[in-house]
Amino acid sequence: MNIEEKRILVTGVAGFIGSNLTDRLLNLGANVIGVDNLFNGRLENLEEALNYKHFQFHKGDIRDLNFLLDIFKDIDIIFHEAAFTSVPQSIKMPESCNDVNINGTLNLLNAARKRDVKKIIFASSSSIYGDTPTLPKIESMPRIPISPYGVTKLTCESYMQVFHQVYGLNTISLRYFNVFGPRQQDSPYSGVIAIWLGQIIKNKNLIIFGDGNQSRDFTYIKDVVQANILAAENKISGEILNIAAGSPIKLLDLAKLMLKLTNKEDLGINFDLPRPGDIIHSFADISKAKEVLKFQPKYTQELGLRDYFEWYCKKYGINLKIK
Ligand code: UD1
Questions:
Q1: Is the full-model pTM beyond 0.90?
Q2: Number of structural domains, the chain?
Q3: Measuring CA to CA, which of 60, 251, 278, 287 is 20 to 30 A from 126?
Q4: Is 285:138 a contact under the CB 8 Å cutoff?
């Protein structure tokens, strides 16, 4: 399926991943209908998208079936990015996480079935693997989530597969590994790179939860966008694929790298208690995505950080000398 001129629906369109994906889809010539309840998403993220005449924005909630049925007209593909995204917040509010992620996704699947949508690409997460010791994480291994958030993403993956098997809907789950880049918010419940960049700009020390030996396979947003477009164009269905850079970095090394790249090595690193529900090591085997989708990550963590910092400085008029 070629996505040019397709009618595409993006949930979570005003969020970090949804808005980056939407800009690329519009650029490729797709018609995009965007949905967001603006709980975490921000209209500011749609500044570029709103310049396109083949973009429509609808404020509403994926848990509202009538709202979805009203706007689902001749949709070819749905990219489902709307979610409750924070692991620590899911520990504080498991019911809300369950409601948004599981009930919202089931609602979306039901609306898609009723309106004969052809394909859904779901934003899943590496958190479904939990802390099983085997590394790298491969799609076929046991999935034992250790946070309510992880449980919701795993349940949604199962729903994607069941809707494929039972109702013939074309579904794909992409297991993202720690996505970072432009428009990720600097809020206490956001990803660590956005939080640390905020600290660097404010000349504040970075805080590491735990000893800093935990590792993540940080993946640049442009590679995640690439993976989604490849998945949309591919005929596979009912599949689950890891999407990552395919190289882990320890949190302590990431902190040092961010301070070095921004010329802020004078700032310190403070250590705090480990976060409950935190996975220790997360590192992806991406051979399936490479083989099936011809996915090839183009950004190492350092390249991604540079691109992100440059975007940030330009956008907010900040004078950081990137090394
Ligand atoms: C992140 C995503 C989640 C996604 C998952 C896998 C966010 C908010 N969470 O979860 O949606 O499904 O990746 O793709 O984007 N840390 C610090 N100091 C800080 C903040 C965090 O040391 O100030 C540590 C955490 O304890 C953790 C690591 O950084 O060990 C990563 O945390 P975080 O960026 O919140 O991501 P995940 O919990 O891995």
A1: yes
A2: 2
A3: 60
A4: yes
